[in-house]
Amino acid sequence: NEKESNEVEAFPPKSYDSVKTLTSKNICDVASPFPTPLSNMNTLASDFLKIEQDLAWNLLNIDYTDTKVKYISNPIDHAIEPHTSFLETYLNGEKSILFLGMNPGPWGMCQTGVPFGEVHSCKSWLKIFGNVKQPANSHPKRPIEGFACKRREVSGERFWKFFETKCKNPETFFKNCFVYNHCPLAFMAESGKNITPPQIGAEKRNLINSFCDKSLVDVIQLLGVSSVIGVGKFAEARANLIKKRFNLDISVYFLLHPSPASPAANKGWSEIAEVSLKNMNILDFL
User: Most Cβ neighbours (<10 Å): which of 110, 217, 266, 267?
Assistant: First the structure.
């Protein structure tokens, strides 16, 4: 269950030097603090990737040793090839609508580098695939197998299948829309259990959220977003928080998360999504 913290959050320091050095021994992979944009990427995609990689670097430099987090997966690093392919293919202009998720799932974006990136949907509909590097130290119960992964990612399967039925092709969806996660990392306990950002202790959670909030503002301004659709209560709450804090001229909406952990979603997420998006007048843009 997603829980929103009501505690006051301080914004993070701007300098890498003032961020604690990462000391956890089980970190899967670490992004470069000064990533070099690929030469063949368009400027918008390159600027977007820079925001993502800078955010990942800041988050990886938080000291997690006093939390339950023992493993961290950074798909922007180990799945950089399909991730940049996703950006190069579909981030070719400003987007008025942003679907906002929480963070990567172990069998979705952690494998493919694509938000809600269920393997079959990536390969068959989005036409995104590529080599995925093996992280230096991944959890044995959460192996990184890339596009060879056979595990189902129900949330991503439901998400992309819905838009496949509504849009003639991916280009129709991405003409006005894009998909982005509030946090680019996946966190795991010693057991391999997934730990969502809201489940991390207050001090570190607030630091994570403040870094991610600032990057979300940067993404919204870069893409010219006017509507943010929070996929789940957590994402909706973060979008509303930055709207108020930064006085952003955006509309924020809620869309039920397609997670199999949600009884409501299991009763028919596609039907719920259809009604919700119709009420938002978003279907007119698809």
Answer: 110
What whole-number distance in Å separates Cα of residue 21 and Cα of residue 63? 6
* Dist. CA 83–CA 88, nearest whole Å: 9
Tell me the C-alpha distance between 175 and 91, whole Å. 9
pLDDT digit string (tens) for the chain, length 286 residues:
433 333 333 333 332 222 233 334 444 444 444 345 455 788 999 999 999 999 999 999 999 999 999 999 999 999 999 999 999 999 999 999 999 999 999 999 999 999 999 999 999 999 999 999 988 888 888 999 999 999 999 999 999 999 999 998 999 999 999 999 999 999 999 999 999 999 999 999 999 999 999 999 999 999 999 999 999 999 999 999 999 999 999 999 999 999 999 999 999 999 999 999 999 999 988 8
Query: How far is residue 257's CA from residue 199's CA, in Å, rounded to a whole number?
Result: 17
Integer angstrom CA distances of residue 171 from 11, 67, 228: 37, 42, 19
